[in-house]
Write a structure and sequence with these properties.
mainly alpha; binds heme C
Length: 158
């Protein structure tokens, strides 16, 4: 199954609600039609706001339960905000086998699909200052914030 095909299943209902045509959505890894404002406010300052469907619900749960020790930094928010974002991620998180069975270290950048899609990217490229690591999707996917990861539109900065 291709990446697009498995994403399609999960995005279908949201896309139909959004009234988009197949041609427009087949190449998109969309954010949900309505993004929780708190998620956008609290989770998009150090890296982009990742589409929740790219990580398993159990990973999101662990992430939201340990924000004070967040990949080597402190990303704490107040209790009410934490609960609100946590609940939203549980509702929106990926629930398909591919995400469930492989989110080691609670990262989408260590999932098998990620490694597979990026196998041609040289190690030295990730280390470039202009890229700043695998977690900075928007460095190469300029439309990442709207869920556009189409390989035709990737531009790797020098
Ligand atoms: C203070 C900065 C900061 C804030 C705020 C922050 N993060 Fe992070 N986040 C990081 C850093 C640093 C990493 C590790 C990046 C790396 O390894 O290159 C990271 C990584 C991640 C990853 C894993 C990315 C990967 O490698 O696959 C996820 C998922 C994530 N953050 C979710 C969140 C969520 C959800 C929130 C909001 C509750 C949030 N982050 C807020 C700094 C932050
Ligand atoms: C160094 C640049 C770079 C960064 C950073 C990067 N990618 Fe990519 N990505 C690529 C390249 C290049 C391809 C195309 C691979 C190919 O065509 O063989 C790709 C392909 C993809 C695809 C497949 C698209 C398709 O049409 O099949 C997805 C999905 C994707 N990336 C998601 C992400 C996510 C999510 C992040 C951040 C967590 C990310 N990428 C970070 C360079 C990058």
């Amino acid at each position: 199954m291709t990446f697009k095909k498995w994403m399609m299943g999960s995005c279908m209902s949201a896309l139909m609600l959004a009234g988009m045509t197949p041609a427009a959505w087949a190449d998109k890894l969309l954010m949900p039609a309505k993004v929780l404002p708190a998620y956008q406010n609290e989770c998009a300052s150090c890296h982009m706001a990742y589409p929740p469907s790219m990580l398993s619900k159990s990973s999101w749960q662990r992430i939201m339960g340990s924000l004070d020790k967040h990949y080597g930094t402190d990303a704490s928010v107040d209790k009410a905000t934490q609960a609100q974002i946590g609940a939203w991620l549980q509702a929106q998180g990926g629930a398909y086998k591919r995400v469930e069975s492989s989110s080691p270290a609670d990262r989408l950048t260590t999932t098998q699909w990620f490694e597979n899609k990026h196998r041609k990217v040289d190690k030295a490229v990730w280390a470039r200052k202009s890229v700043n690591g695998k977690a900075q999707c928007q460095a190469c996917h300029q439309g990442a914030d709207i869920g556009d990861f189409e390989d035709d539109r990737v531009r790797i900065p020098l």
